Queue: 3 jobs
Job 1
Amino acid sequence: MKAKLSFHLSFKLSWQMLRRDFRAGELRLLALALLIAVASLTSVNFFTDRLSRALAQEAHQLLGGDLLLIADHPWEDDYRREAEKRGLRISESISFPSMTAYGEGSQSTSQLAEIKAVRPGYPLRGTLRSAPTLNAPDAATQATPARGTVWLDERLTAALGVKTGDTLKLGSTHLTVGAVLTQEPDRGMNFFNIAPRLMMDIDDLPATQLLQAGSRATWRLHFAGEPGDIAGYQKWAEARIKRGERLEDINNARPEVKNALERAEKFLRLAALLSVVLAAVAVGLAARRFMQRHLDGCAVMRCLGASEGQIVRIFLGEFLIFGVLVSLMGCLAGFVAQLALQALLSTLLTTPLPPPTWRPFAHGLGLGLALIAGFALPPLMRLRNVPTIRVLRREWVGAEPLAWSSYAAGALVLAGLMLWMADDVVLGLWVLGLFAVAVGIYALVARLALAAASRLRTSGVMGGMNGAGWRYGLASLVRRRGSSMVQAVALGLGITALLLLTLARDDLLASWQRSLPPDAPNRFVFNIQPEQREPLRAFFAARAIAEPKLLPMIRGRLVAVNGRAVTAADYAEERAQRLVEREFNLSWMSEIPSGNSVSAGRWFDDAATNPAQLSVEQGIADTLHLKLGDSLVYEIAGQRMEAKITSLRKLEWDSMRVNFFVIATPALLAPYPTSFITSFHLPAMPLAQENQFVNELVAAYPNITLIDVAAVLRQFKTMMDQLAQAVEFVFAFSLLAGLAVLYAALESTHDERAYELAVLRTLGARDRQLRAALITEFAALGVVAGLVGGFGATLISSLIGRFVFHLPYALSWQALPIGIAGGLLGVTLAGLLGTRRTLRAPALQSLRALA
């Protein structure tokens, strides 16, 4: 009974203290920092949780069946016969990009589209939806396009300006528009569906004559059936999968979607991570100030008979209630914020998201309580050791010196939170390591600055009328060495975050824009047949457009290196595995192409006597661990070709020219089936003339594929802008956390500074001397924080530009002077504004308030 009464009394006292402290403003900064941290994490967790669950719910529809076989060549009939033997349902589809055209002559319009040829019965899982006309209500359908007809999605219908019943040209044939395609199940939530879609019957495909040598087509077999039959067939197929073939089930469906989501999620998690790191610093500073302001109250409680255990229980209860309430508010704010994320990405998400689960709430509550336990409770636990003598004398061993040990628990908690939030051990360790290095360097610079301030104070340089004020300002920093270092580090971290969110981001975008020359090619044409080369040159000459340089392209697969067969299992890096599995675009030429430079070896000097030579791009060679002298074997159209690497090349990928990973001598590859590819710059002209040129080109050569790189880049930029807006939205939490750190750092020593100013005024110090002391103290803190913040932001943005975005990023030092100036002015003004009431108040009033 006594224990229950004690618990009830402690809880009641904790609740009363919480209400009193919050009304007095003691917990508002702590609440703000905690709210920012929880809201930033839960907003990302809510969104990614709903997104991943939506992807899981539609896994079968993303496949168009229960199992999917994908290849860059037609599938052998054995796979169909085995599926029929096991009682599985089968469907087939072929996808490739091509040009579509509507109209005749100067009135025609053309558009690049993703062609999808299907057999009746597609899809095996999910539902097709179509509408009779554009913007009309759609309905589910079990049918597919009939022979001689095509279904266009809404984007392609609008782009071509067609309606149901119109005839459009596809390759060498004409097909009738039968309906508007509004939904296909295996398109799903693909961030990279840039081209609009056209669906047709697979038996109409031969008449188009679009599948030529070098065509980029994908053959898919869809299967559906009982789980046991599917599992058995999957095991049978896995044992027979060859190069260029892969199998997908509901566990690995749509890897491009998965990879896109993972990349977006990493950006969002990094943004939330920065918010939590900065918020943790603010929580630690605010908790330390709370502890210092409650020393006298704890001493009075000890005089009235309160035991150490009772004091601990009261404060533990207060902060437990506080942590739960603020964390729940943060979870609610995060839920509202993820609705904004969903709105920002609405055009990229074609599938409704399911409602959230309880897990993001649990994660947010856990984060809030972990920050309280790591950064607030360790300083508060020291309150139990407050001696009763403090009521008479403001003394307490360990009260003034900074207890660095109290932050050890917080550092461990923060490290665990960073690894947990990153959801990737490697990523978490990198962020943790960089954060630790930044804190260490900032602390070292702050320590050196304090040592310099100590020597400057005694050097006699600060002479004159106000010399005493300046010297006292420096003395205050040196005397509170530990607190000053914490303030400098915290302010430096806040300024670093603010600079990264403003200047560094703009520099990276400017570097990206400068990487594209104004006359860079803006159109690519491929699938050009050998007999079309001369007519195509004449076509360009007749229209006074620079003659494009046609380059041969041969599709081949790397099968062996130095006589040893290579497979994806030979490489640990994911990119290397993909490269080994796919077909390469090979080319042959006698002269080194523009924008290429030999980085090792020699170009084809003796090609006449030694035709079996290859030149390999440096990056692909590093990825696949290739070197000069290696012998490579490629399989081309069922034949094998072998040659040695005699040179490595560096390429200007940003030039937008046609580039090749592997180039051979003409004598080596000329005998193989070849198509041609080119890129050209279409000068700026009225839209009607531009459309006329493109339409005439497609009409004259219906088999070619023309890609408007400018349009693709515009669409891609629109998509990336939306993703960037989502990331910047989460970075807004980081911005708020950075401002909270700046405020918390200045407030952490407010009471000590106010008490000292009151004592000095009592001893006769003038206002201008006190103001000079404050200006010196705040200006010194601001300069040190701005210096480390500007330097840190400069180096971090440079590393990101070079090693993450791979941009020709020129190291810009503008963040350094801006950081120093901003730190000097911002910290000084904020500090003076925060102490203006103290300067105006009578000394006796300040002493009574702080005594």
Job 2
Amino acid sequence: MLVLSLCGQTAWSQHGLSIKGRVMEQDANIPVAYVSIAIVRNDSIVDGTVSNEEGHFALTTVDDFQVLHVNFIGYEPKVVLRESIDPHKRIEIFLALRQEVLDEVVVAAERTATQQLIDRKVINVGADLQQTGISALEVFDQIAEIQTDLGTGQISLRGNSNVLILINGKPSGFSPSELLAQIPSSAIDKIEIITSPSAKYQADGISGIINIQLKRNRKSGLNLNLNAGIGTKRYNYALDGNYRYKKLNLRWNYAHSKRDMDSKQWLERAYSSGRLENIYAPHDFDGNVSKLSLGLDLLLNKRNECSVSWDYTDDNHDFFNNILYTYPTGEDSVAYLRTSSHFHYTNTWNANYRFNVNDKGHFWELEYNLNRNNNDFPAADSENDVFLFEERYANQNSLQTLSLDYSLPISKRATVEAGANWNKRNLHSQYAFTEANGSDESTASYDYGENVWALYGVFRHTVEEKYTLQAGLRYEYFASQGQTPANLLKVNYDFSDFFPSLHISYSINEYQTWNVGISRRISRPHFNHINPHRIGNPYFNFVGNPELLPEYSNNMELTYNLSNEDISLAATTFYRHRTNIILWVDSFTDEGVQQVKNINAGDVSSYGMEANVGKNLFPFMRSSLAANLYFHKLHDADLATWNKLYSSSLQLRNTFRIGKACSMDISYRYTPKQQGAFEYIDPRNRLDLAVRAKLFKKRLAVNLSIVDVLNVNLFHRHVRTSTLNQDTLWRFQSQTRGYVLNVSYVLVKNNEVVRNRKKRNYHHGGATD
């Protein structure tokens, strides 16, 4: 950031040259926020400003300067000569990503820019990561700030899995594991990690929000890209592009992927009754995902813009679990077979209209989003080759959002934002059970609906180009109803809450900043907590709890950032206090079936540290080290086996350039022992390798990545409750040794921006399973 001299302030008051413009990213044609713009005269900075979140800037300065310097972390510096600036016209400045700096968060080669904004971190995913052909879930596994369990699909931030995941700012009806498995990494543009959300973001997600921004084709003329990949028991292909003619832009994407997995699981159980049980549970998976997206942008004039889009997903997969139970205590062994399938069909419609009052970031925006997905889960069970029963679970899930946003720059350093949101969810689930001989046939259903009305206001002000203050307040009214036909599980929730937020940024200089974030969050009881009809398996099922109350969290964090051409450092410490926590509690039946129920269980104090440092050791090599450490103390949680919980990880990455066209990445991750409320996980480690080559003027990219080169990344979990000790060994195919070879080719490429619509953040995370 800029430090203005006294003489510069005096000159500013005496002269009146007005400069207005916008800063854009050169390749993606998207705005770049919080860029430093310096006015230089006689090799000294005499004035300056920063761009806002839409990339706009404006200042009145001295007339006799020589150059205008534009700088931002991760981009090549830009110099604009005074004689090229027409004070009667707005200027557009395009910044190129800094290509010689290597990445700290991606699998393969080049580093892309990581922006630390006042209330979130934005990881601009580079071509090396985008074109490895793996899913978004595996992309998350390479980001140090996100804790990923590839076996269960669980996603955590700072040791807590209560995370709201959005796609292009929109919710999904799928669980995180289903949702992230559907998204190929080649479709990802950037990932926003929001651990201290401001008031303009929905209040759900105790530990924060992860927003995945997918690519949008925005360039003029015809643009066409082809991606194809093959790997360990999988393949994928995709074709995306757009055609823009004058004020009309048509964009499309089609992708298909297929994956098989044959993971294995071994369990040893010792019950308090003295019974012993050994289980061998191989897990065969066969899945297909097809996605089609169509969008239309209309740029009617400088003031009026609108877009409509439609997305369709067909996600189906089969499971084959041939489980062998043996009993050291003398019972006969049992071969238990379950065959099941998941069918997901999702349609999403979106309409957006934006009215630009002027070209200074003053606008109104109205948006409507409708997401409908139908899900079917049939299953059949046999024991010792004798058919037992079949069951079927299905649901229809509808999510609607209507949002109005307003942004008003009241000066060159101050902006007011306000908005209103309405969110609605409807869920109808059905369950059917049939015995082999037809002696027992039963059906059940559950209906659930919820509405959220929200208002927010945010004020942002920059003082002397060093301090930025952002304060906001959000109000949400939540109402939900759920019941079975016989009213056996009837709920009727009604909550009204305020959620303040405060963010302060201090710039020591253009390379160093401090950020402070304070926010309040909530986790309300939702249909997954209450719904008694959720798909399980022979040794695992869910129990609904209609008595749950909301969980609240007060979050604070402090972040220091240093970045220059040679070294980068980001360090964060945080504190989070949660009240009335919603805790996942396990119990076991006499038959050994694990039952999961969510309950309210006291308070939790959490604190920890995250650090990420990178340095260019040689012109051809960059090394980075990422580490995190999290502690949690449970208060008054009598049901928990342990009340002092912890987790940590260490990731070392070395990236090499091999000539102009090739690069290589070697990554090592070590995860020490993790302690949960009812379980602990043994330490584990993994070595990954990736190589990439760009050919034919970078139009062709070939990527090879190998996960767990040494094939040692096994997963050991130990459960301890008052009634059971369970030790589990898992070998997940997606986490142990495997490879992906991907080829990406740019068939046609042009350059021009199409639309700059607001990156909306919706309410209503959730899942269907």
Job 3
Amino acid sequence: PTPVAPPTPPAIPWLYKNSDIPVDTAWKFGELSNGLRYGVRNNGVPPGQVSIRIAIDAGSMMERENELGFAHFNEHLSFRGSKYVTDGEAKRVWQRLGASFGSDTNAVTSSTQTVYKLDLPSATEAGLDETFKILSGMMEAPNMGQTEVDAERRTVLAELRESDGPDVRVGNALRGLIFGGQPLGTRPTIGTIPQLNAATPAGLRAFRDRWYRPEKAVISISGDVAPAKMEALIGKYFGDWKGVGPATTEVDFGAPQESSPKVLFMSEPGATTVVTMAYVRPWKPKFDTIALNQGRLLDMVATAIINRRLEERARGGASYIGAGVDRSEVSRSVDVTFVSVVPIGNDWLSALTDVRAALELARTTPPTQAEIDREVAEVVAAFDVQVENAEVVPSSKQADDLVEAVNIRETVASPQAARDIFTALKSKITPSDILKSSQSLFEGVGPRVFVSSKVPMADGQQKLAAAIAAPVKAMASSQSKGPVTFDQLPKFGAPATIIAEGRIAGLDTKTLELSNGVKVLMSASPYESGRIFVQARFGKGRQAFPKTRITPAWAAAGALMSSGIGTLTQNDLDKLTTGRKMSLEFEIGDDAFTLRGNTRPADLNDQLKLLAAKLGAPGWDPAPLNRAKAGYLLDAATLDSSPQGVINRDLQLVLHGNDKRWASPTAAEAEALTPAVFRAFWQPLLTTGEIELSVFGDIDMAKTIEMVKSTFGSLPKRKPALMMAKGNVSSGPIPNSTPLVRTHRGNPEQAAAVLAWNTGGGIANSFESRVLDVLAEVFTDRMFEQFREAEGASYSPVVFSSWPMGMESGGSFVVLSQIKPDGVDRFYTRSKAIAADLIAKPVTDDELKRALGPMRENL
């Protein structure tokens, strides 16, 4: 290509025209003479990486009636080769440069945009030049002959087939109701089978010619390269891009129609019972101004108050598991307020009534100033965290943020500018302001109300219509208890002393042993500006569980962290952490339990207090367990509706030789779990076992040591870890000659097949685990080349190695794919043939490099 020098940027960058948002000067914006716009910036997180995004202003909303699915089809075809590379070679080139296909290289088609994404981990000058050359060919001149179209048609149809199921049917019905009378209601991105089958190279090319044009494209790049070099490459490879045919005009996306249906009851046994309400208003182009964003911030506070009330009622035992309100502008088509409700069981009518009462309170009664102050503090904290973390935002997010801003016709603001905009508003927010904002949330066409019920109901439509027509009485405003302080957390003992200290060579990590037995690892990192990661490992994890029976371990994620600390409930803890950056997460590992939190320097001491108190005096509020049970039962009832659901439910149990530590409980077993049994199981596990505390990130070492001594160091010395059974070994998959068969009750054209080998486990053999990881990458690449092309599987197959470091055995090497039922035998034949070939002869140097490159860059 003939290089074209980018023009001098205008005084006001193209993204900020008609806006008074402060320009984010870290970006350098420009526009080529052919109309292509770009934004580039230097960013060294992670070092050496460059993130490239090419956004085409075309999605499913731009399709004509005879083109449904063509935007997505064209996205697929872009990867099939172009004037610069043969079919499939782009993937291999980027693998050699360290990018992994499907993770670092990808594309996504939405209703209004198609975005091509590449995160190049090791961006050399030659690698960048080759990358821009390939990308320009993909945009300007992809191979779109009959051979390529037929081959990719199989993959697109497989994607449609594999995604079909209860959730898709519910989503299509919901979209048709909420966006009734607009193209958005009838434009699924995937398209339809008849039109995908009828697609021709000429038809697909015609769509592409209308929309793949330089004036419809934006390139966003952030990375560890000088902006001038990025600009030069854009000019060199995209400067001579010319559109084919006349310029394309904007498409009318329509407006909400008052005459469209307002209610829809749908019986879908394979899906979760849900209620969705929507208040729909026309989307109108707006200038992205400070005043506009301050209005949105008022909406943010208003919805946060409503959502807090809904959540507190759910925690206390309401008729719903969860409910929430969200206002968003969807696909440049509607400004909509969504209300989502997940009822307990199938009692959607009670849940709908309760949530409507909460909404009515928000519409008719101003909130208290205390409620406003609490949510304002949360918003301020969120902006503060963004400012503190500005130096560690990865290039990939910055590149994504810019193309999304283009998509929604807005600007990007620096974290500091965003905080300043809200700071100018926060002290002026009154109850009257929030009442007006709350009322505006529920204006417009609506409510349009949708119910998807697991249980058929002949008069469901009539009952839903009557429920919405019935008058609603605002719920009583709850009287909030007084403030909660960290002084109300349980107290333990005097600070510990240090009895031993040292360093881990090569890792810049300090080690301590405290007088109460707590061991500490600490590392101060200059790369974690404003971020600190804290975790406490204790106990034996799954090794502590019996192998032969189901335990309450399955309910830990939903109930354990929400059950409070001491006499403080989860609602109290939320108040305690208002305006702070703190978290409380729990994980069951093979050889330990882990309690972790993410925080910042200003909140580190209180984060440590919170974690230590959870271990020293866990609370046992029964309400979270009842909520977790209801959620589990809701999900479990839908798992046999698709192959993927059955795999999610059963595969881990099979891969571990029917070891019950990896089993899911039956509905009856889940229903039978009581708060008393849950507490009797977990309390001794939480309060025994040596603690290893890790504190990594933006820390002052001396101050952090004192914090650790007075928090975790104040805990009493713990007894040895509880072991219900000796379980440091686990069986892997049990060999068989006849495949195990599980059935689902979903689409009969859907199936999945798995082939697994028993491997090993344990940290002593960790080198072997790395070799198996490399083997999985090679196997994946061969399966992709041979199986996906031949069988037309969309995102399949998947190959992975599982090697438990915390167990001495129980690993597996797994090949999995979603396929048509008639392809099961071919799956096994092809998989075994690849395995046999890998056994018979070494992989090529190129294969090994393409497998190792992305893995090395990831590390």
